[in-house]
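Sequence, structure tokens reproduced for reference:
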Amino acid sequence: MAFYALFCLACVLPVSVLGNAARAGTQACLDLTPQHGAVAQSSTSPYMLSVDTTSITQGGMVTVTLNATTAGTTFRGFLVQARCTKCTTADTAIVPGTFAKYTASDDTIQTMDCENDAMNSMSHKGNDDKTSAKFTWKAPADFDVTEGIQFRATVVQVRVTWWTDIRSDEITVTASSTSQVAPVLTLAVLSFIAVSSLLP
């Protein structure tokens, strides 16, 4: 009886560490590696990440599309994040922007919270076959404009067949008009005060 109980437990336990069909597991947040017990494919990925722009301002928005590149190719799972390209920790620096569904009624995708930042990742919902996924990403209003952004994805075709390090074009970020106006206004006010103090 004890042997039977241990056997049943051994059969059940691996399920909890191999990943969740409902979405990517949080253990994949940093290295974008699903815990499926299989290594990534070394062949060219049949998927691509495209963006509708390669230049935004602080707080700006990008539309991101994950597509199969060949007819008849589908995928079941994925995890997409915005990564910093000019940080000292570029390989692990998740940019704390905000993902959202492109179409509110889309029930095939969902946002994820990684490393305690809300909605900084996008993943699948359920394991139905898909040919594309479309969503938006909003940059932080205080994003450091000396750094760049690139979306990175891991895509699972079936449980043991997956590709990683799928990258979009790099996106540059420029200062928003409000962040440019603020220093000018501050300088103008200080100049006015300085001039006023000199007047009789």
